[in-house]
Specification:
Mean pLDDT: 97
Structural class: alpha/beta
Number of domains: 2
Helix content: 25-40%
Bound molecules: pyridoxal-5'-phosphate
CATH topology of the largest domain: Aspartate Aminotransferase, domain 2
CATH class of the largest domain: Alpha Beta
Shape: globular
CATH architecture of the largest domain: 3-Layer(aba) Sandwich
Low-confidence stretches: none
Largest sheet: 7 strands, mixed
Strand order of the largest sheet: 2-10-9-8-7-3-4
Distance between the termini: 41 Å
Length: about 375
């Protein structure tokens, strides 16, 4: 498809959440997780065609989109999904909240592995559930599950596990073995798994994502899987996502709790998702190559060129999780913002002293941001690397 990911688009004055945060200031925004690339050409073409029709009534996903999703899951993961298992949604954050609402009684426990994407931490309390964050532990330079701690924190009131795989912000694509171990503990204790797999098509290291629900009948019957084309094909503003819920009882409960609270899915979101999944695999391959290049640049620069900062290998996502604790500043996100780079604050993910950098942008933007970060740290004092 020969996409030009180097092309810099001006996103100012487009009401972009990412860019308007720093309106009127010279701050490069590398925070919220959308990319500064245009959506793939077949998506733009399909949207133009749909807009030209000019009627935007309530919409259904349509048989073709459902068929494409089912075929894709079969081809990628040998996962045989029945069309009736798919529940369409306007986003994954609403789905996390519906799951917390739907399962368990007031102040039952929802577990999750932290640091994690902030809505995982806020959803339980919004539905009168108790959040139990289990810290990830580091092993051989990567974050992983602390299974002993996980099992020891489980009580008779633990009803739901919110899992993030690939994991935002730590960039892990968990192995089959890691996922299986977590899932087996959850099943053993009758804990429903809600697995957010929104980053599943953004694996950068040539390995394969393993959906937790493919690990056997018992796990599948206990799992709600959340997916969307939005991250991979840069469509998050079009609000289209889906849950896969093989267990009819769980599905009914989920749907009941969604009804009349969550709006229906966006008409243009369906159109874009169909074109993305059906026609844009080449574009996705090119995107992965480009993101892998960006990942390598960020990783090398942070670990080799900027003293007092470090990061792990990003196996998946376009998010770098940077340990800035050695900088010794009270608020690293603010420190870099003053230097002209807008990063996500680790405290929102339950990790003080960390920042998250979104490298889903043209290389010129990324290089400028990294240079600004390097200068800010150099101005701080003597270099140690
Ligand atoms: C793990 C994860 N889940 C959900 C979302 C947001 O999903 P949505 O825009 O569909 O609500 C994000 C966005 O960054 C994410 O990283």
């Amino acid at each position: 498809m020969n996409s030009d990911f180097d092309k810099v688009f001006d996103r100012r004055n487009t009401n972009s959440l990412k860019w308007d945060k720093y309106k009127g200031r010279d701050v490069l925004p590398l925070w919220v997780a959308d990319m500064d690339f245009q959506a793939p050409p077949p998506v733009l073409k399909a949207l133009h065609r749909r807009v030209d029709h000019g009627i935007f009534g309530y919409c259904l996903p349509g048989d073709e989109l459902v068929g494409v999703v089912v075929a894709r899951l079969q081809a990628k993961y040998r996962w045989q999904v029945e069309p009736s298992w798919i529940v369409w949604l306007p986003g994954l954050v609403p789905a996390l909240n519906v799951a917390c609402r739907a399962f368990g009684n007031d102040w039952d426990e929802v577990l999750t592995f932290a640091p994690v994407y902030p809505p995982f931490l806020s959803a339980p309390e919004l539905s009168r559930k108790k959040l139990k964050p289990i810290p990830l532990r580091r092993e051989k330079g990567l974050f992983t599950f602390d299974i002993e701690r996980f099992e020891s924190e489980i009580s008779s009131r633990s009803k739901l596990l919110l899992l993030c795989n690939p994991h935002n912000p730590v960039g892990r694509r968990y192995s089959r073995r890691e996922i299986e171990t977590v899932a087996q503990v959850a099943v053993k204790h009758n804990i429903i798994i809600c697995s957010d797999e929104i980053h599943c098509d953004l694996v950068l290291d040539g390995t394969e994502h393993v959906p937790v629900a493919t690990l056997g009948k018992e796990i599948s019957a206990n799992t709600i899987t959340l997916m969307s084309a939005s991250k991979t094909f840069n469509l998050p503003g079009l609000n289209c996502a889906f849950a896969i819920i093989p267990n009819e009882r769980l599905r009914r409960t989920f749907i009941k709790n969604r009804r009349e609270v969550i709006p229906s899915t966006n008409a243009l979101g369906y159109v874009a998702s169909l074109a993305a999944y059906r026609d844009c695999e080449d574009w996705r391959t090119e995107l992965i190559d480009y993101l892998r290049g960006n990942r390598d640049i960020v990783q090398e620069f942070i670990n080799e060129e900027i003293p007092r900062l470090s990061m792990d290998n990003v196996q998946a996502t376009y998010l770098a999780w940077i340990d800035a604790r050695e900088l010794g500043v009270p608020d690293p996100a603010l420190f870099f913002e003053r230097a002209g780079v807008g990063l996500s604050d680790g405290r929102h993910f339950q990790a003080e002293g960390f920042v998250r950098l979104n490298f889903g942008c043209p290389r010129a933007t990324l290089s400028e941001a990294l240079d600004r970060m390097k200068r800010a740290v150099a101005d701080q004092g003597p270099c140690m690397k």
